């Protein structure tokens, strides 16, 4: 799907990918139920490595126009829900997403996902 036609979606996607980079810095693996039981070293490796097939799948589906629109709608919705998840976990004792930058990329993904949803609907 062409960037000009889906500018807000790709902006949201850039924000969420940046958030995932920040999630490694913030040790997000300590919050998830399965990876929180692992040592920091193993949790970091598992959390980071899972993103490789996830991103391959994501880019593969986005490269197929017949499938991309449904994924875009789903991800736009997820970007909004994702803000809510971070708000729910705000007081989690192992939450390290406390910086302005962390919240800018979390909210940026949701905001541009919302703008893409508005544009589509």
Helix content: over 70%
Q: Secondary-structure element sequence?
A: HHHH
Decide which structural class fits the backbone. Answer: mainly alpha
The unreliable regions are: none
Distance between the termini: 17 Å
Structure summary, number of beta strands: 0
- Mean pLDDT, rounded to whole units? 95
Number of domains: 1
The global form is globular
Taken as a percent bin, the fraction of beta residues is under 5%
What does the largest sheet look like? none
How many separate helices? 4
Radius of gyration: 15 Å
What does the model show?
The chain is mainly alpha-helical. The chain is 72% helix and 0% strand. The protein has four helices and no strands. It has helices at residues 7-25, 40-62, 65-88, 100-120. It is globular. The two termini are 17 Å apart.
Summarize the structure.
With 121 residues, this protein is mainly alpha-helical.
Name a few traits of the molecule.
globular; mainly alpha; 4 helices; transmembrane; DUF6713; transmembrane helix; 121 residues; membrane; 72% helix
Topology record:
Blueprint: H1 7-25, H2 40-62, H3 65-88, H4 100-120
Helix pairs in contact: 1-3, 1-4, 3-4
């Amino acid at each position: 799907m062409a960037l000009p036609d889906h500018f807000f979606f790709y902006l949201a996607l850039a924000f969420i990918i940046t958030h995932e980079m920040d999630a490694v810095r913030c040790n997000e693996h300590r919050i998830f139920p399965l990876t929180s039981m692992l040592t920091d070293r193993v949790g970091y490796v598992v959390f980071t490595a899972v993103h490789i097939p996830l991103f391959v799948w994501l880019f593969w589906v986005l490269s197929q126009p017949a499938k991309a629109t449904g994924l875009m709608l789903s991800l736009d919705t997820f970007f909004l829900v994702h803000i809510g998840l971070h708000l729910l976990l705000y007081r989690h004792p192992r939450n390290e997403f406390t910086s302005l930058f962390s919240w800018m990329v979390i909210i940026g993904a949701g905001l541009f996902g919302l703008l893409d949803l508005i544009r589509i609907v």
